[in-house]
Write a structure and sequence with these properties.
There is one protein chain. The protein has one domain. The protein is built from ten helices and no strands. α3 packs parallel to α9, α4 runs parallel beside α8 and α7 runs antiparallel to α8.
Length: 242
């Protein structure tokens, strides 16, 4: 697939912006590939591979700065990993799933922006709801070809189970694990088909590293929260329209 310089420039900024808030960027990559006419069978595995690299560098930066909460991650991945594997094996038209998700993300953006209040108290994680949410997010992640961070982040914030940077660290790890599980499902089902990803990965890695560095070490919580809101709104628009 031949793409121009502008594609890589957009890819660079998408990876950087998503990595800054602990996301792998799959929803952005899928939207970008759709605009440039990539074949549907190539988009899903390609987005998951890029997720592995960008979410990986994002997690390392947030982990090094002491924001990772393993217990919060564990309660979600117990059920998300097997369900991401199952979802990855399935071939389903994702259009309506993405549109519904895009609509739901608008409410998360409104909440994070303070429209529905802005309480900062931290609550204890409820295991049963978290396990059920993890299963649903994992299945959807494997099915569509995303890591699930754009779903998990607003849920953690809305329920008060973590602060912004803690949420970013957990989301990055969650995305990496689910993307790997989804790729395994794709590979076993024989539906793994990609273009030459070396240049795409190289550009996304540079953007992801810079975004994760500034997101985890330099930006304050208020700016990061607005940045997360912007990322979610951008993903929402893309999911609804593309």
């Amino acid at each position: 697939m031949e793409v121009g310089f502008e594609f890589f420039l957009i890819l660079f900024f998408v990876a950087g912006l998503y990595a800054a808030v602990g996301h792998g960027g799959a929803s952005g990559y899928l939207a970008l590939m759709a605009i440039y006419g990539f074949a549907p069978e190539v988009m899903k595995p390609s987005a998951l591979v890029l997720n592995l690299f960008v979410a990986g560098v994002s997690f390392v930066q947030y982990y090094r700065n002491g924001h990772f909460n393993f217990r919060l991650l564990l309660v979600f991945i117990i059920t998300s990993v097997p369900m991401a594997f199952v979802g990855g094996m399935m071939i389903v038209d994702p259009i309506w799933y993405k549109r519904i998700l895009g609509i739901l993300l608008i409410f998360a953006v409104l909440r994070l922006s303070g429209i529905f209040g802005n309480k900062e108290e931290k609550r204890e994680v409820q295991w049963l709801p978290a396990l059920l949410l993890g299963a649903g997010i994992g299945f959807f992640s494997g099915l569509i070809g995303i890591g699930g961070g754009i779903i998990l982040s607003p849920i953690i914030m809305l329920l008060g189970w973590g602060n912004v940077k803690e949420t970013a660290a957990v989301s990055a790890a969650f995305i990496w694990i689910n993307s790997f599980s989804g790729l395994l499902g794709l590979g076993i089902s024989g539906n793994f088909e990609t273009v030459n990803l070396v240049p795409y990965v190289s550009v996304a890695l540079i953007g992801g590293f810079l975004g994760a560095y500034f997101g985890s070490f330099k930006w304050d919580l208020k700016l990061l929260k607005w940045c997360l809101s912007f990322v979610l709104m951008m993903a929402s628009v893309k999911l609804i329209l593309i």
